[in-house]
Specification:
With 197 residues, the chain is of the alpha/beta class. Helices cover 41% and strands 14% of the residues. The chain starts with a helix and ends with a strand. Zinc ion binds next to helix 4.
């Protein structure tokens, strides 16, 4: 009395981070009891993930390139916010106070782990700055050693460019993840951002 269909679902769910075989089994049986509509919606949403790729302009993950933020006429090109990963855009957007543009690095400088400027598309960022000519470049990077190294590198590379560099105000605990910061802390850090020079 084994079902190949159930085994297959357990096998895939168990590959997700933090989900062992036992949780995968529990979830598979939950899905089996759930409505067929729910299962179909879930399957459809997972399938739609295959359409997601990088925005050619800001490198966030999107089905449309340029993404909706880059294509929006109400977004101010004078403001360019640099984040480590696409998921960092969500908490900033949830604040509802930022109406500029973004650039996603997909990583931070980490010489010890062999992550250099090319690995995180910094040249693309510098090209974008030359093209877009933002008034302010906001480095909304996590307050970690790698975040600091990246801020220093960008500041040094853009030292002759007519752009104001700023970073999030301290308040985000050292080593913390922007993605998980609470709205009040992130809001304050964003509002009170400090100029780098
Ligand atoms: Zn974009």
């Amino acid at each position: 009395m084994k079902s190949a269909a159930i085994d297959e679902v357990i096998l895939h769910l168990a590959r997700l981070p933090g989900i062992g075989e036992r949780t995968a089994t529990r979830l598979a049986f939950y899905l089996l009891r759930a409505s067929p509509q729910f299962r179909e919606k879930l399957a459809e949403s997972l399938k739609a993930l295959s359409q997601v790729s990088f925005c050619s302009n800001c490198r966030t993950l999107t089905e449309e390139s340029p993404c909706r933020i880059c294509a929006s006429p109400v977004r101010k090109p004078e403001l360019l916010c640099v984040v480590e990963k696409p998921s960092d855009i969500y908490p900033i957007e949830r604040l509802g106070k930022y109406n500029g543009t973004y650039f996603v690095l997909h990583g931070l400088l980490s010489p010890l782990e062999g992550v250099g400027p090319d690995e995180i598309g910094l040249q693309l960022l510098f090209d974008r700055v030359s093209r877009q000519r933002p008034e302010e470049l906001i480095l909304a990077l996590n307050p970690t050693v790698e975040g600091e190294a990246t801020v220093s590198y960008v500041a040094q590379k853009l030292s002759n460019e007519p752009v104001q560099l700023s970073r999030l105000a301290s308040g985000l605990p050292m080593g913390s993840e922007l993605e998980f910061a609470d709205q009040i802390t992130l809001g304050k850090a964003f509002e009170g951002r400090t100029k780098l020079r």
